[in-house]
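In full, the data:

***
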Amino acid sequence: MNVWRRGWAATGLLLGGAAIILGGTVLAVIMGSQIVGMGMQVLSAWLSYVPILAEPNPRQIPAYDFFRPVLALLGGFAAFLLGWVIIVRGVSLAWPTRFDRSPQDSP
C-alpha cells in the first residue's frame, strides 16, 4: 500500500471511528436516561402503595417494556467500543513504525 492510500485509509478510519463513537455515546446516553426515567416512575408508583407513604389514591404501576431500551443501550455501548477499535486501527495504519513489533537491527 503506497503512502497516499495508507493516509486516506487512516483518515477514513479515524473519521469513521469518531463518528461511530459519537453515535454510540448519544444512543447510550439517551437510552440510559429513558431507562432511569422509567425506573423512577415505577419506583414512585410502588412507593405510593407503602402504608407510611400511602396516597389517598395510589398510582397505577406502569407496565414498561425494558427489553428494547436495554438492548439499544447495549448496542450504543458496543458501538462506542467498536469506534475505539476502529480508531486504534487507523492510528496503527497512520503510524506503522510505532506499532512494529518485529526485531529491529541495532547498529
Notes: The chain has two helices and no strands. The helical segments are 3-47, 67-94.
